[in-house]
Input
Amino acid sequence: MSSEAASLDDYLAGACTDLANACTACGKCVEVCPVTPTLPLAEASPPGITADIARLLGDGTPLEGAAEIWAKHCNGCGICIPACPEAINPRRMVTLAGTLESRRQSEAPELFRKMSRAIRIMAALQLVPAEFDRLLRIPHARDAREVPVVFYLGCNPIRTPHVLFNAMHILDALEVDYEIVGGPGACCGIIHAKWEGSFDKGGRVTDGTLDRFDDFKPEKVLSWCPSCVMHLGESIEGFRETAFEFDHVTRFLADEGDRLAAKLTTPVPKRVLLHAHEGMPEIGARVARFLETVPGLTLVDTVVEPGYTCGGSGGDRSPTLKATARAALLERAAAEDIDCLVTLFHGCHGQLAKEQERGAFEVLNWTDLLVASLGGTPHEDVSKRYRMADDWGLVLDEGEIYLRANGIEIDREQLLRLLPEIFAQAEFKGGLESFASTPRRTEAAAS
Output
């Protein structure tokens, strides 16, 4: 697949130095950033902020003051990229700056450990054992068969498994020969490197996952998760030379657009509003084209929210900006000309699904609509049902038998306390301490 790769530590050192040398600290990225006006930056100058970030990348000087505040609130929208007169990628600069800062002090210690347990519990609550095993089984090299396509699930999408099974239904309808790789055992490495600041672990995890892809000798690896695309395709682009193309699954479906359109024959009479993101506009544009191909469906409008996705790496990092955009999205979705709000990514769906209880509109993922137009039945969205129930006792009454069938034993009372945090992905904000190897004393005693 590739020549022997350098360590991630060495790669990041070189990448950071190159970016620091290329940056002239003009401050254009800070000036155009939509998050900047929402932050308490006082009299800080945009050139001063970018100079501090370039200094961190160049010689390791820790961020403080305005530069630290600005970098922590970057939502990955990418509006800064075309504004840079040096044609470098300021989004990548800020991401790598945050990665270096995490090595000094992580915002979410033991995130991978907590996240892995939360993902397994959420998936086990929703899936029968055969489905659970299919998404979380780690393939062995000896079992790999040569296929043209690998569908890469990532980690967190498994919390919202129906979108993944829907995507596989679409690939099956196109008669794609593929295998799947996913789950925490095949993480892209973003959690270890970017969030935990462990470059050694991050490099090993990334190498291991790329090796798993290569076991299948694919021509293409199709990722569902936008964060995996961002990490492997932008933040650490070039870390490993690969023999396959890596991109979001929507690009493959767009390339197969004529064949897909020919199969979308069942009318889906809905008037929909598409929720999209600034940071990866090409994905939203592709999904809009898919929806416009569905007979009977009217794409009334698209509302673009900040960031490259919802969640802790995206829109949630700029809460003031997001709150304004989210209010506008929900107001537009409630208008009389809309009967369905269509979500883009798994994280978006996880946040927006509960809004269906407002009664003014249905919330579906775009994959639900494509499966329906293919004449199929979308996979049941158990996660949405659980979120709308708003009663964790009822959720556990239904889901406990699935947990046990999937081999997960956990005290019921403890799980009742943890379910709100698990569904809210609280580990990305330092929560779910009960899942840490050394929980803080107060929470350990409480549990």
